[in-house]
Specification:
The structure is a single chain. It contains 13 helices and 13 strands. By secondary structure, the chain is α/β, with parallel strands linked by helices. The protein folds into 2 domains: about 220 residues, 3-Layer(aba) Sandwich (Rossmann fold), CATH 3.40.50.720; about 140 residues, Rossmann fold. A 7-stranded mixed sheet has the order 10-9-8-7-11-12-13, with helices on both faces. Strands 1, 2, 3, 4, 5 and 6 form a 6-stranded mixed sheet that branches. The radius of gyration is 21 Å and the shape is globular. The mean pLDDT is about 95. Bound molecules: glutamic acid. The site of glutamic acid has 12 residues, from helix 11. The site of glutamic acid (GLU) has 12 residues, from helix 11.
Length: about 425
Amino acid sequence: MTTERAAPAINPWHVAQQQFDIAAEKLNLDPGLRQVLREPRRELHVHFPVKMDDGSVKVFEGYRVQHNLSRGPAKGGIRYHQDVSIDEVKALAMWMTWKCAVVGIPYGGGKGGVIVDPKKLSRRELENLSRRFFTEIEVLIGPEKDIPAPDVNTTPQVMAWFMDTYSMHVGYTVPGVVTGKPIALGGSEGRNEATARGTVFCVIEAARHLQIDLKAATVVVQGFGNAGSIAARLMSDEGVKVLAVSDSSGGIHSPAGLDINRVIAWKAEHGTVVGFPGAQAVSNTEILEIECDVLIPAALENQITASNAERIHAKIVAEAANGPTTPEADEILFRRGLFLIPDILCNAGGVTVSYFEWVQDLNRDHWSEKVVNEKLHEIMTKAFAETLAISLREGAHMRLAAYLLAVQRVADATAMRGLYP
Ligand code: GLU
């Protein structure tokens, strides 16, 4: 008989609202504004049929949420995952609002998701699902209204299908309706690496602030999708030793350091990092507790919680994922002197280059990768410096500092526009 019970799942929407409440309180935000910003503006819930390869029809469920539109059109990715829920999408949409405000790009926040494990679909089923889902949410979508992008398990190819679907409906090609497209269809140079590159720019700034020599440093990365795998590679390019990485199947650990290009090649061949020769197996919870200089959670929400925050042994926690740390864990890490770079700053490189992509599309322009990376660097280092200044001034951790900056910007825009009618 076992007396152990699984801990109740943490609801990301409650986390998002709690983070907002802490900032709103500290900012002494007007109660009316507080009520407005505490809830999403629009939530669309769809059920839609998809023709499967065996001829059957399967109905899937998905969402598109717009949290706030005060500073511009809604912006945010679409995620395909079996655990997607309306509360997760609402949280992710709210986080997009703050993220766009932290880096000062002219968007509100949105997010979408479909409850599906895309690894179980054929390519044709994935295309059918993508086109029909996009059709269903199109009432909200448009280059001036709401611009989706990749997120967990969605790729440039999926963006190409979204763009084509919208374009077929209006009768002409509209590249600016989604970002993260393949370069040949109006995608931006550097977009694919942008989330990870922004994270690494933040880590470099944090290391400078803390006087950590990255050439002698170590990193652990949880998650090996677009953000995690590229962050591991870029960190290794910076001379940092990669001790451990993981994906949804499990992790690998090598105290001597992993050759990250070989791990990427292994994953491409085997579909997982697990089994990589010469490395020890490690679980997705154990990996977070490996002693290192930089820990990069790059997977899903609620990985660092009150139950393991005391056992995190990193100097810098760089959140490439959205929502990996709970508010209780924030306090524990802060008390223990860990320097956490919060998601709404740390992974904002993705949406920043999405913004560049959208600007290029609207202007029928194409910038070089050098120009994109320089502009990204400028925006990320400015946002980091502004956040750090608030953190030092207020004696607050970096998440609260980023929230103070972002919530104030959105509150100002919302208040200045006034209440309609
Ligand atoms: N899904 C990414 C994020 O969470 C990118 C969103 C975008 O580029 O619009 O920030």
